[in-house]
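User: Hi! I'm working on a homework problem where we have to compare a predicted structure to a textbook description. Could you give me the structure for the chain below?
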Amino acid sequence: MMQDSIARLRAEIEAYDLTSPEQLDQFRIAFTGRKGQLADLFDQLKTVPQEDRRAVGQELNQLKQLAVSKFEVRRQELEEASANAPADPTFDYTATP
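Assistant: Happy to help. Predicted structure tokens:
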């Protein structure tokens, strides 16, 4: 049961489209925030039988690392793209004044 939730969430995280700062913020809130889906799964970890808890905990940690790394990499890419973008994309920098 818990492994199914983890697999479903992993697929959702991998498929999530992060093309804008707004989507990046929604991703952070939905998955890595204190009230996000990952936090809910970590809360459910106490209901997992003791003999399975270690393996499920490791899967959850890997899932969290996946979500955080996807967020951080994409955040950095978006910041670099906005820093390298011209202030006014319609302005012709080659025109003489």
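For your comparison, note the following. The chain has a mean pLDDT of 90. The CA atoms of residues 17 and 23 lie 7 Å apart. Good luck with the assignment!
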